[in-house]
Structures are given as structure tokens and as C-alpha cells.
Design brief:
The complex is a heterodimer. By secondary structure, chain A is α/β, with parallel strands linked by helices. Helices cover about 45% and strands about 20% of the residues of chain A. The radius of gyration of chain A is 21 Å and the shape is globular. In chain A, helix 1 packs across helix 4 and helix 2 runs antiparallel to helix 4. In chain B, the strands form 2 sheets. Chain B has a 5-stranded parallel beta sheet, sandwiched between helices. In chain B, helix 2 packs parallel to helix 3. Classes of the chains: A alpha/beta, B alpha/beta.
């Protein structure tokens, strides 16, 4: 089946209006595959017919399902091992700045089905003695309610559980039942999840580490800038932002600078002097 | 062990199809691949050329995966390859037995290239039983 350009425009507009994401040409190949379950379930002939149905006045549920299906929820445990290997040093550096206040807040923005934030949780529990008397808050957010529900359940297929996860972690933190792997309560209880779009006002308070990986790449430039501005607002002054391996702040935000010596990590750029000082300096 | 040091993998499986699929994945991950269709043949290969990683099936004729691990220990190799057990067995007891017998990682069939790549990254990083070495 050929997806008509007009269909692609309708789907693209819908996705952008609801999520801020764009359906770039690079994502067109997966549209039919992503929508196929909806076509089958609803007996709709093809994607072009689906796009036509979206115009009906009572199509809210169909459009919700369509948006959910178009989102790419690809994720796995410890995705990019090298980047994760740097995180304990980052936690340690932030902890060293805390004088008497033993709290650590970590936010996985665009957490999908939870593998990323559960990886952080396992990493912290690996060093249990170090963090024993710390209050650690782990938050996962995503725009998709269905993936948030799955993340809360922390119930993974055999295929999902072994993607990126060491066997030792799997045995320690998950229980196998009929081929499904469910996180133990001790791990699940460490993490909270809620629905949130990174383009909206960030969750309250400041976070010491924010992971927003493989999210920006779906946004048009203007929304990348908006998301990065939100993340800058949510990041503690001495905190760190982790982006995906192929993502950058360059061209979208001057609020961040690369954290030297570690991959994919950024810190807030030193605050610029107030305008009046810059003018004075230029004139001197 | 850095990524650039792991370049050779020995795939031990009595299924020609599994070997072919695994070899293809490994080649796309820049490994040179040697094959063996049972533990005995794999052991002979180890005596002449030690790979960086062994992808090891559990159930095989002549010498199975567990017997291979015991035999490999007895060889007292100067450099021990990392072993990723690769089987259809998915119950916890099997996995614990494999790890206790000396496997560095465990991968359940079927798996895709990204999963295999992640398991190789884990053994390369020296993460054993979920702890960094």
C-alpha cells in the first residue's frame, strides 16, 4: 500500500499538534508498521482510510490511539553502556557538593517503558553502602500514558529484559514468571512515574541529573530549543544533563556546556554577566 | 578490556542455522568469527587460537556447554576468553548454574543484534553479575 502524501501530512500535523514531535521523512518508513495494529483492530482498510477517519467529529479516541502508535518508544536497559559507566562519577561529584543535605533527584524525561530510570536505580543500588543514608528520588516521565502504565508495572518480555541488562542484574532485580520478568518491589518502589511532555513546564523542584536521551531528535528545531530551556530551568546549578549519543545542544541552546571528560553529558553554562556589566566591559 | 581488543569470537552451536545467524550479527559488529559445532571441537580450537569471546550453546552432542566450561578451566589458559552462554533455557536456575559454572554472561534465544552487542559490551566492561569488576 502507498501512503499518500496528504495522509502523511495529516498524520504529521496530528503528531506535532499533540506532542510537538515531527514526523520527519526518516520516520516515514515505520508509519505503516506502527499503524497496522489499529487498522486490524478497527477493520480500517489502510492508512489513507485511517487519515480520512481522523476528520470525523467523534474521532478523538482514534486520534489518541494513532498518536500513541506513532511515538517511537524504543529503549533498553543501560542503553549506551559507556555513557552509563560515567554516571557514578557524576553522582559522586554532585554528592561532594552537598554539605549536609543528602538528597539526590534524578529525572528521566522521555522514559518510555522505564528501562532507563530502572537502570539508574540498579546502578545506585549496586553501591548501596555509599547511598544508604541518602534520600534519592527517581522520576520517569513520558508523553505516552500507555508506556507510563507499562513502566509502572515494570513487567518485561524475555526480549526486553536481556537487551542491555547483565544477567547478574536480571537475577538480582527481576523475577521470572511464565517467560515474563517482573521487577522486584524493592526496585520498583524506588521510581515514580507520571505523564509529562518535556515541552511543558517541568516537574517542580530542581533535579541533580536529568536524562533526556533520544527525545530531542524527534523535535523540530524550535521545540528542541524549548525543551532545552525547560531542562535548564529544572536542572540544579551543579547538576548534569545527559542526552542521547547522537544529540547535541549546539544550535539550540546556549544554556549548557559540555561536561569535560564524560560522554553525552552537559552542565549549565556559567551565568552570563548582567547586560549592564557587559556594556561596561565593552566600553572600558 | 577496551572495545578495540575484542575482535575474535568462537561460536559454538550444533545448529548450523544458529551459527549462521550469530556469525552474521558478529561480523556486522566487526568480529572475525570461528565456528564449532560442539564443545569438543571448540576445545580443540582453543588450544591453537584463543578468541576474545565464546558464544556457547548449552545442549550439544559430544560435549555440551557445561562440560566445555569445565574442560576450559582445566586447560588453565593464559588468557581466558569471555563466555556468553547462549541458549533457549530461560529459567532462573539454569541461568544461575551457567553463571556459577563460569559463564560471564547469558543470552536467551531468540535475540537480535542489539541484544548481542549489549551483552558483548557488558563482558568487555568486565561487569560480572551486575557488578563492575
Amino acid at each position: 500500500m502507498t501512503i499518500a502524501p496528504s495522509t502523511m501530512r495529516i498524520l504529521s500535523s496530528l503528531l506535532e499538534a499533540r506532542t510537538g514531535q515531527c514526523l520527519s521523512e526518516g520516520r516515514h518508513w515505520r508509519v505503516e508498521m506502527a499503524l497496522n495494529p489499529i487498522l486490524k483492530k478497527r477493520g480500517i482498510e489502510d492508512c489513507n482510510a485511517l487519515a480520512a477517519s481522523l476528520a470525523a467529529p467523534d474521532a478523538r479516541r482514534l486520534s489518541d490511539e494513532t498518536v500513541e502508535a506513532l511515538l517511537n518508544n524504543e529503549t533498553y536497559f543501560f542503553r549506551d553502556h559507556d555513557a552509563f559507566a560515567d554516571l557514578p562519577r557524576v553522582f559522586e561529584a554532585i554528592a561532594a557538593n552537598r554539605k549536609g543535605r543528602k538528597t539526590l533527584r534524578i529525572w528521566s524525561a522521555g522514559c518510555s517503558t522505564g528501562q532507563e530510570i530502572y537502570s539508574v536505580a540498579m546502578q545506585l543500588r549496586d553501591d548501596e553502602r555509599r547511598w544508604r543514608d541518602w534520600s534519592i528520588e527517581l522520576l520517569g516521565t513520558d508523553i505516552s500514558q500507555s508506556v507510563i502504565d507499562r513502566a509502572k508495572r515494570a513487567d518485561f518480555s524475555q526480549f526486553e529484559i536481556q537487551r542491555g541488562l547483565a544477567a547478574g542484574h536480571m537475577l538480582r532485580w527481576f523475577e521470572n514468571s511464565d517467560g515474563r520478568w517482573q521487577a522486584r518491589d524493592t526496585l520498583r518502589d524506588m521510581v515514580h512515574f507520571r505523564r509529562h511532555n518535556v515541552l511543558d513546564v517541568p516537574p517542580p523542584g530542581q533535579f541533580d541529573v536529568i536524562l533526556c536521551r533520544n527525545v530531542m531528535l524527534y523535535f523540530p528545531g524550535i521545540n528542541r530549543a524549548k525543551a532545552l530551556a525547560n531542562l535548564a530551568r529544572a536542572l540544579a546549578p551543579d547538576g548534569a544533563l545527559m542526552l542521547g549519543a547522537g544529540e547535541t545542544v549546539l544550535g539550540y541552546s546556549d544554556r549548557f556546556e559540555i561536561l569535560p571528560g564524560v560522554r553525552s553529558l552537559y552542565r549549565l553554562a556559567a551565568a552570563e554577566p548582567p547586560q549592564i556589566l557587559r556594556v561596561a566591559a565593552a566600553g572600558s | 578490556m577496551g572495545a578495540s581488543f575484542v575482535k575474535k569470537c568462537l561460536v559454538v552451536d550444533d545448529s548450523k542455522v544458529i551459527r549462521k545467524v550469530a556469525c552474521h550479527m558478529l561480523e556486522t559488529l566487526d568480529f572475525s568469527v570461528v565456528e564449532a559445532d560442539h564443545g569438543g571441537e571448540a576445545l580443540e580450537r582453543l588450544k591453537t587460537d584463543i578468541p576474545d569471546v565464546v558464544l556457547l550453546d548449552w545442549n550439544m552432542p559430544v560435549m555440551d556447554g557445561m562440560e566445555f566450561l569445565d574442560a576450559m578451566k582445566a586447560l588453565a589458559l593464559e588468557t581466558r576468553p569471555k563466555v556468553i552462554f547462549c541458549t533457549t533455557e530461560n529459567d532462573v536456575d539454569h541461568i544461575r548454574r551457567a553463571m556459577a559454572a563460569g559463564a560471564d554472561e547469558y543470552i536467551m534465544k531468540p535475540f537480535d543484534r542489539e541484544t548481542l552487542q549489549s551483552k558483548i559490551e557488558i563482558v568487555q566492561a568486565g561487569a560480572v553479575n551486575g557488578q563492575s569488576a
